[in-house]
């Protein structure tokens, strides 16, 4: 994007699909409509986690990343549905195509949300609010799904705005309203402020943006480290980050949580064989090769470690990946403690590869196409 455009003049839209996975399931299965749907692992199995929940389930306090057993306790009538990621990805691609009718400056964050810079739009509409309305209407007409949109002059405020009136919301926060809006915002609503940080802020008497604004930048950095500088700027509505249309994935992999703890190396190697095949299929799908192979292990006591090895050249070869992962496993004395989860991932896709005397960059994988 033109660097001479003042950040206060940018027109940024953040689109966030409403309860995306659950809404797709309710769309495709009429018997689920109006009922509390939980997409994710079964509460009967160990390690099941909520991927998303319909709004009917959210009324009971069910949230993403919550253990499935806890979700069932909160909502005994919940219907648990296995995720269909291939379907969600197809829908996501259609949504991306709708975005591209208005701008090519699209920064996907996941399958169900993205930033759009419409400072200069392809159809010369000129109004970010009107473009957001057209996008929302197209998603409804073509996919029978609802989305919420936030519109502002920067990414941070647009993202917060998209969450203000869910579901099916549209919220505009203009330049003259940003500082007042940020001053009234509870600290836990600041994107990037997690529960632990929010609790710390409240113990310090910092409950709103206005409270944060009373502190100097040095005060904030002293109490919160590097993020303190970000808080100082953002509470004043300053966010000069550009929408990045070519964000690339840092790693690609797969992992699995087992129904019982593994205690034998043979069992673990057998599971790594399965996981490795999935990883290679995903690498092939996107034309990727990675130079660094990482093994992730979670133990029965929930302690987690990673081990990695970087190779001289990028690889997508199943045998090489498995050989490396199994060597990394052996280095951890695998039978010393029960293993609950194993994962393999590859990274360092951007290493320049020499091919016939020429250099080329490996294919880049958009986060919009990333696998959950």
Automatic annotation (TrEMBL):
It catalyses: DNA(n) + a 2'-deoxyribonucleoside 5'-triphosphate = DNA(n+1) + diphosphate. One of its GO terms (molecular function) is damaged DNA binding. Binds 2 magnesium ions per subunit. GO terms for cellular component: cytosol. InterPro entries: DNA/RNA_pol_sf, DNA_pol_Y-fam_lit_finger_sf, DNA_pol_Y-fam_little_finger, DNA_polymerase-Y, DNApol_IV, IMS_HHH_1, Rev_trsase/Diguanyl_cyclase, UmuC. SUPFAM superfamilies: DNA/RNA polymerases, Lesion bypass DNA polymerase (Y-family), little finger domain. It is found in: Cytoplasm. Its main location: cytoplasm. Residues 12-194 form the UmuC domain. The active site is at residue 113. Its cofactor is Mg(2+). Gene3D superfamilies: 3.30.70.270, 3.40.1170.60, 5' to 3' exonuclease, C-terminal subdomain, DNA polymerase, Y-family, little finger domain. Its EC number is 2.7.7.7. GO terms for biological process: DNA repair; DNA-templated DNA replication; error-prone translesion synthesis; SOS response. It is an enzyme of class 2 (transferase). Keywords: Cytoplasm, DNA damage, DNA repair, DNA replication, DNA-binding, DNA-directed DNA polymerase, Magnesium, Metal-binding, Mutator protein, Nucleotidyltransferase, Transferase. Mg(2+) binds at residues 16, 112. The record marks 21 as: Substrate discrimination. Poorly processive, error-prone DNA polymerase involved in untargeted mutagenesis. Copies undamaged DNA at stalled replication forks, which arise in vivo from mismatched or misaligned primer ends. These misaligned primers can be extended by PolIV. Exhibits no 3'-5' exonuclease (proofreading) activity. May be involved in translesional synthesis, in conjunction with the beta clamp from PolIII. Belongs to the DNA polymerase type-Y family. Monomer. This is DNA polymerase IV. It comes from Chitinophaga tropicalis.
């Amino acid at each position: 994007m033109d660097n001479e455009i003042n950040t206060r003049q940018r027109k940024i839209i953040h689109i966030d699909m409403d309860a995306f996975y659950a809404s797709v399931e309710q769309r495709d299965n009429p018997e689920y409509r109006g009922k509390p749907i939980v997409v994710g692992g079964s509460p009967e199995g160990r390690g099941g986690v909520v991927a998303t929940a319909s709004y009917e389930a959210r009324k009971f306090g069910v949230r993403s990343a919550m253990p499935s057993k806890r979700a069932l306790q909160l909502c005994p009538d919940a219907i648990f549905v296995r995720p269909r990621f291939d379907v969600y990805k197809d829908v996501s691609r259609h949504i991306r195509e709708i975005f591209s009718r208005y701008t090519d400056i699209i920064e996907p964050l996941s399958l169900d949300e993205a930033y759009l810079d419409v400072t200069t739009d392809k159809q010369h509409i000129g109004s970010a609010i009107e473009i957001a309305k057209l996008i929302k209407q197209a998603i409804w007409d073509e996919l029978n799904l609802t989305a919420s949109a936030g519109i502002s002059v920067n990414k941070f405020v647009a993202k917060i705005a998209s969450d203000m009136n869910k579901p099916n919301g549209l919220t505009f926060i203009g330049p003259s309203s940003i500082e007042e809006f940020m001053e009234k915002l509870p600290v836990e609503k600041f994107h990037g402020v997690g529960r632990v940080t929010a609790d710390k802020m409240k113990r310090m008497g910092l409950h709103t943006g206005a409270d944060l604004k009373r502190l100097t930048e040095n005060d904030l950095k002293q109490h919160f480290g590097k993020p303190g500088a970000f808080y100082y700027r953002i509470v004043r509505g300053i966010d000069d980050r550009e929408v990045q249309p070519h964000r690339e994935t840092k790693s690609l992999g797969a992992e699995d949580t087992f129904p019982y703890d593994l205690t034998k190396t043979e069992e673990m190697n057998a599971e790594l064989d399965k996981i490795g095949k999935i990883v290679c299929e995903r690498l092939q799908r996107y034309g990727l090769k990675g130079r660094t192979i990482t093994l992730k292990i979670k133990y029965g006591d929930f302690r987690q470690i990673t081990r990695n090895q970087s190779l001289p050249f990028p690889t997508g070869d199943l045998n090489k990946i498995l050989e490396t992962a199994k060597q990394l496993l052996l280095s951890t004395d695998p039978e010393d403690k029960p293993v609950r989860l194993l994962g393999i991932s590859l990274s360092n896709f951007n290493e320049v590869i020499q091919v016939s005397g020429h250099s080329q960059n490996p294919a880049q994988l958009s986060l919009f196409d990333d696998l959950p």
